Amino acid sequence: VYPKVSILDPQYTYSVPKNQTAAGVADIMSHAFEKYFTRVRTAYIQDRVGEAMLKTCIHYGPIAYNEPENYEARANLMWAACLAIDGVTWRGNEVMSTCHIIEHQLSAYYDVTHGVGLAILTPRWMKYILNEHTVYKFVEYGVNVWGIDAKKDSFEIANEAIKKTEELFESMNIPSTLREIGIGEEKLEIMARKGSKGLQNAFWPLDEKDVLEILKMCL
Fold first, then answer.
1. Is the CB of residue 82 less than 8 Å from the CB of residue 8?
2. What's the domain count of the chain?
């Protein structure tokens, strides 16, 4: 359900607990990633808007985490959250919510905060799909969002960008493995089976075996 109009007051988010603030930042970034890592190479404006959302989360996420009543941080994150889900970057683009689809299985079988599951999954998904066919997008992400030197080797840029993403989540004390949140190997196969449906058309296609490997990487 999408509202026709929404009136947003960042002050109402002052009381959001630190762990939920961090999880929210990871969720915003995940929505941005899912319209950024696509096979469409002509959505220039959409990609630049997506990068602005990601840079906003990177800059203001830790500030809001450490200063819950920082109006500037809360306001910019609230605006980023709106843009990430209101369809602006969907138009003329693809949408494949890969990490969301997989994470919904974690939340279905375990009591997992959605954003925490996404923060654990996202860097592993990135590492798993990084190859000679996808590296160009990671280079864009690394150079345009993280400011990594464009003269570096493409895979060096990509891996550095992924590492920085992990470090951002860690800086807000988000768990980095499934075991930290009480998830072992018991239900990985059923989650992989259910969480792989529809991912054949993703930025990098995934099947049940691929999703299982990603989940194992998260342990």
1. yes
2. 1
Domain containing 148 equals 11-218
Residue 134, in any domain of the structure = yes
Whether 17 is covered by a domain: the verdict is: yes
Residue pair 185/157 in contact by the 8 Å Cβ criterion: no
Examine residue 1 and state whether it is found in any structural domain, yes or no. Answer: no
**0.90 surpassed by pTM:** yes
Per-residue pLDDT tens, the chain, 219 aa: give them.
Answer: 778 888 999 999 999 999 999 999 999 999 999 999 999 989 899 999 999 999 999 999 999 999 999 999 999 999 999 999 888 887 887 877 899 999 999 999 999 999 999 999 999 999 999 999 999 999 999 999 999 999 999 999 999 999 999 999 999 999 999 999 999 999 999 999 999 988 988 999 999 999 999 999 999
Please report whether residue 158 resides in a domain: yes
CA–CA separation, 16 vs 152, rounded Å? 40
Q: Give the CATH number, domain containing residue 62.
A: 1.20.1090.10
